[in-house]
Amino acid sequence: MNALDELVFPGVALFFASLVLTTISLWVAGRLTPWFMQEAVDPPSLRSYFLEPSADMSLNRVRFTTMGIAAAIMLAVLLVLAIGIRFGR
């Protein structure tokens, strides 16, 4: 049972951490999209990214911009974490 805990728990923890990071970055990107596009737009809801597969098929300009900003936010956070782990004391 101990070996199972050593294999399963880190995987589940990493999955939930990445899910939280994705959700937060999509939320922040949704708030930044109107400023980035310099026009009044309605960003997609967070629920549509996870629960509506048909929404991904109809990729429009606002959704694409929001996902690009969210990817940049996630990469920036992961870079800070990697640098902190590598060079931190």
By DSSP (H or I, 4+ residues per run), the number of helices equals 4
- 3D shape: flat
Quaternary structure state of the chains depicted: single chain
Question: Whole-number average pLDDT?
Answer: 85
Which structural class is indicated by helix and strand composition? mainly alpha
What is the CA-based Rg, rounded? 17 Å
Helix content: over 70%
Main sheet properties: none
Number of strands: 0
Report how far the terminal alpha carbons are from each other.
34 Å
Spell out the helices and strands N to C: HHHH
How large is the share of residues in beta strands? Answer: under 5%
Low-confidence stretches: none
In short:
By secondary structure, this protein is mostly helical. The protein is built from 4 helices and no strands.
Protein architecture, described:
With 89 residues, this protein is mainly α. 83% of the residues lie in helices and 0% in strands. The protein contains four helices and no strands. It has helices at 2-37, 46-51, 53-57, 61-87. The longest helix has 36 residues, at 2-37.
